[in-house]
Amino acid sequence: MRPPRELHEPREPCDPGGLSGARRALGPHVPDIADRLPVHPALAGLLPGGGLPVGGTVVVQGSTSLLLGLLAVASADGAWVAFVGAPAIGLAAAADAGLRLERVAVVPTPGADAPAAVAALLDGVDVVVLGPAVALLGADRRRLAARARERGAVLMTTTPWPGAHVTLDVRGGSWWGVERGAGWLRRRVLRVRRTGRGAAAQPLELTVEVPVAPAPGERTPVVEPAETTPQGVGSTTGSPGLRVVA
């Protein structure tokens, strides 16, 4: 986590200038990529080291529920999260996933100033999430990735990003809980293909259960961590599987 004195003081959610000013007061910091922001144990198997890589870039494609699930623990732990160019991600869904809205910034339509807005947010926000409405050139992507590395932020995106440390591509999934058109969604299971570089260079396919909010009046269910030992193709075990793919 970044220094709490600057990150966690109350401030207006969409004030990039204030955030960057606070970050500049701390001076430059180049993090060790081994630093991680925590994620729910059920999702830790998706990420090398079991967490979001500080100073790294993570792509999550095909599932808003997985994206928000990966952010929930860090947000509850005090991290600031900014969504840029992602108008389809609703605040109600973010709150249901466990994000603390008092530490969430939203820039739904950054327009032509997107590179500058993202750079300013990376100066003072723990996690910056880029949606499809962020238009970037290749040079912009390289500069922003370098900025995240310098400032100790996690840069996440819902669209392809060449050179990302981790790419999570959701290939399908299922919901449980709704019967005859009514009910409360209780379980979300996804099939995810992980690629990337470094520790994520070997492609993997995993099945994970994304934590969901309990129905009103229910206790929060205990979700077991994803299986992290390789299983044979076509395994019939009941636990979530993981396998190496070509």
From TrEMBL:
Keywords assigned: Membrane, Transmembrane, Transmembrane helix
Record region (Disordered): 1-22, 213-246
Bias-annotated ranges (Polar residues): 228-239
Biased composition, class Basic and acidic residues, residue ranges: 1-14
Transmembrane segments: 66-94, 114-139
Claim: Transmembrane is one of the keywords in the record: yes
Protein's name according to its UniProt entry: Recombinase A
Record organism: Xylanimonas cellulosilytica (strain DSM 15894 / JCM 12276 / CECT 5975 / KCTC 9989 / LMG 20990 / NBRC 107835 / XIL07)
Lineage of producing organism: Bacteria, Bacillati, Actinomycetota, Actinomycetes, Micrococcales
